[in-house]
Sequence to fold (341 residues):
Amino acid sequence: PTQSVTRTSGHVVGNFSKTTSTTPVLYPIGTAASYLPLTINFSVGSSEITASVRGVNPVTDKGEGLVSNPLLALWTIEPTAFPASASATVIFQYPDNVRQPGFQQNLAFSARWDTGTSAWQSFLTSSTPSPNEDPSSVTTTGITQFSDWAVFNSNNNIVLPIVLKSFSATYTSDYVWLTWVTASEQNNDYFIIEKSRDGITFFPIDKQKSKGNSSLDTKYTSRDSEVSSGLTYYRMHQVDLNGTTTYFKTIVVNIGDVKKGDYEVYPNPTADVVTISRKGMPAHIQVNVYDLAGRMLISRTYNDLSHFENLELNLTELSAGIYQLMILSEEGPKVIRVRKE
Fold:
């Protein structure tokens, strides 16, 4: 049977399980010495979550830390399943007796232990401390995965590796274009764009070197050509020069029915090789290259292309000028003009 729980005193030492939805739910957990509750809710959907906490130093437990001076607490949050399209908000509450000497409550932020990379994923940019409350707390938004969590302390001189102004995705012409703009960057190394079909399991699709240090707006773009119908989720994280990773919000694109697209030839102009790209490539095609007098200079046949979307054509042997590239398949001819430099 299901029964509501109202806390009047005391707390659970060990695992506490309860179904969480869009309404915040209290998890009255702690250790033998400290009450360290969590409050959790999802933006959409619901899931049963099991939570617990240990009174240990996260740096000692994991062998790695973020900045310095964490709380002596390590929370474990385990959902049965993360709801599709959802993000979570978690409030980490803590008493004075888990603070190490020098811990400043107004500089607290949370971090998630990433089991895939064996490193802490910082939520510095989406954590809000409440130093004037008793007990103190840190509220973290935009969470899309759970595991072990800790609260760290930054320092007065901390500089965010990047200030992100925007991150967006647009579906057009069989591609998803991802665009992000930073207002400033300091000691930033590179960006990773990740993709997911279910909003839970992400995999990398692009890595871009950053400007490193900049106080001006900087725009970056990335193209995802492997699109399919339905919802697709994207997220970005940056890695600074000392290896610290910070994740940013997850965005979603609703892609309609993906149809066979038109051919795209790039780069155009080209100095040597062009790529012929198309969603739904015919299984067999022939590519002929003609000069403007109608003389055929190159002819190539490509077979078994059913599972390919890109093929390369080397134009190095041609002189600089304008050429007609004719693509022949069972669908008929397609002519594209190409400039050779």
Residues 58-62 form the longest helix (5 residues).
